[in-house]
Amino acid sequence: MGKTIAGTNLTFGVEVNDQDVKRISKKMATIGWKLADNREWMKQAGDKVVYPRISEVFQSQGKPKWRGLSPNYIKPAGLPILVLSGKLRASLLNKGTEGSHYVLKKDRLEVGTKLQTKSGRGLGMLHQEGTNKMPKREIFSFMTVRNVFDESMAVFRDHVKKIHKDFWATRTPPFGGK
């Protein structure tokens, strides 16, 4: 699981490549549990973890806090940083919105933005990395990524517990255990 910054798009990915997840999935498969398709828990991780963390970043104006705007930059009063038109924030928080990047496969969830500037540069990437004229304003900082990883693993563990409960509800446990 981790931050993926590919090309001009800014994307955060949750991927089943963690050794513990693979090990648990393999053990579960040996006794008939099905965990080959991870879409259910990855969708939950996106809805319960990834999107709320991105929203928190915009609400708090960065984690760590984004540098303020230059006095030369004119924006309408009351608008927070990175919300001039609202399109960047919307593309990162709402599936199906203009510029939104959302991919859910059996082994991967990707959330991000595909918005481009008029010159074809990735809008999210420009803010993520900064330029020689604009400070870096990370949307996916190390702390955000680490928190998302930890919380996504908690969603995975809850999902495994549910599968375990459902599995044993329809079978007689070996050796009389539960």
Description of the molecule:
This protein is of the alpha+beta class and 178 residues long. It has one domain (2-170). 43% of the residues lie in helices and 12% in strands. It contains five helices and four strands. The chain has helices at residues 19-30, 39-60, 87-93, 123-129, 142-169; strands at 2-4, 10-15, 100-105, 108-113. A four-stranded antiparallel beta sheet has the order 1-2-4-3. A hairpin with a 5-residue loop joins strand 1 (2-4) and strand 2. The longest helix is centred in the last third of the chain and has 28 residues, at 142-169. The model is unreliable at 1-7 (pLDDT under 50).
Give me a quick take on this structure.
With 178 residues, the chain is α+β, with helices and mostly antiparallel strands. The chain is built from five helices and four strands. It has one domain (2-170).
Features:
178 residues; alpha+beta; 4-stranded antiparallel sheet; 5 helices; elongated
Give a quick account of the main beta sheet: strands, pairing sense, barrel closure: 4 strands, antiparallel
Total number of domains: 1
Spell the H/E element sequence: EEHHHEEHH
State Rg: 20 Å
Computed structural class: alpha+beta
Shape: elongated
Mean pLDDT: 77
SS element count, helices:
5
What is the number of strand segments? 4
Poorly predicted ranges: 1-7
Helix content percent band: 40-55%
Q: Percent of residues in beta strands?
A: 5-15%
Distance between the termini: 32 Å
Strand order of the largest sheet: 1-2-4-3
